[in-house]
Amino acid sequence: MNQFLNTARAKGALIIHAPSSCMEFYKNHPARKRAQAAPGAAVQPKAIESWCHWIDKVEESQGYPIDHSDGGEDDDPAEHAAWAKHLAEIGRNPGSPWKRQVDLIEIDPKHDAISDSGIEIWNLLEARRDPQLTARWRAHKNVRARSAVWPAQHGAKRQKCPARPRPHRLDVQPGELAVRESLSRHIAGR
Fold first, then answer.
1. Are 59 and 140 in contact (CB under 8 A)?
2. What is the DSSP string of 74-98?
3. Is the dihedral of CA 80, 84, 86, 92 positive or negative?
4. How many CA atoms lie within 13 Å of 107's alpha carbon, on the beta-carbon side?
5. Residue 99 pLDDT greater than 80, yes or no
6. What residues contact 59, with CB distance under 8 A and at least 6 apart?
7. Is 145 in contact with 137 (CB distance < 8 Å)?
8. Are 97 and 87 in contact, with CB atoms under 8 Å apart?
9. Cβ-based neighbours of 71, under 8 Å, separated by 6 or more
C-alpha cells in the first residue's frame, strides 16, 4: 500500500486518509490541519454530511452483495458481548473502539490530508480542482466508498457505473489519484 501511495504522491495525487471517528488522535498532525485549513468550496453538495443508505430505489431494490442488516457483525453473540464488555472496561466505545488508522499506512505530513468530514474532503478536492479531472467522493460509514472521475468541463459525460459487483478499480492518472466506482447522485446533487 505504501509503495502505491508513494507512486501516487510522486504523480501529484492528494492522499486523503479518512479514519472514521479518529480525528482526536490526529488533532495536531500537519495533514489534519491541512484538511481543516482548506478553503471553503463555493458550493457544497446537499446533505454531504448526512448518511446515505442507498443512492436510489434501483440500488435499494438490488441490495448489497452481503447482508449487513446486523451491522456487519457475524460473530458469536456471547463472544461479542464479552468483547464489548472488555472494551467498555478499558474506556473504549464498543461500537467504534478504534482510535487511529493502522500505523502501517504512512501519512506524509507535507502532502497528505486527514479528515472524516465530507465537507472538509469536498473542500480539499475543490481546492485542488484540476483542469482535466475532478474527483468527487463520499464515504458511507464502513459499508462502501464511492468515487468517480470525469472531465471537469461540464459538457462532458460522466463515466457510467460498472455493473454489479462493483469492485474498486485504482488508477493513477497524471496529477490525480482516482478510485473509480459509482458516484452518489444524492451527494453530487444531481
1. no
2. -S-HHHHHHHHHHHHHTT--TTS--
3. positive
4. 19
5. yes
6. none
7. yes
8. yes
9. none
| Amino acid at the residue 101 | Q
**Cα-Cα end-to-end distance for the chain:** 33
Q: Mean pLDDT in the chain?
A: 72
pTM: 0.61
Q: Which three cell numbers stand for residue 152?
A: 471537469
Asked whether the beta carbons of 11 and 92 are under 8 A apart, the reply is no
**Torsion angle, alpha carbons of 26, 30, 34, 37, to 10:** 90
Residue 136 CA to chain centroid, in angstroms? 10
Residue that is written with C-alpha cell 501516487 in the block: 8
C-alpha cell at 177: 489519484
Taking only the tens place, the pLDDT of each residue in 78-98 is: 998 999 999 999 999 888 888
Give the span between the Cα atoms of 125 and 137, in whole angstroms: 9
User: Could you read off the pLDDT of 122-178 as tens digits, one per residue?
Assistant: 999 998 875 433 333 333 333 333 333 333 333 334 444 443 333 333 333 333 333
Under 8 Å between Cβ of 175 and 11: yes
Residue 89's Cβ-count burial label (10 Å; 0-12, 13-18, 19+) is exposed
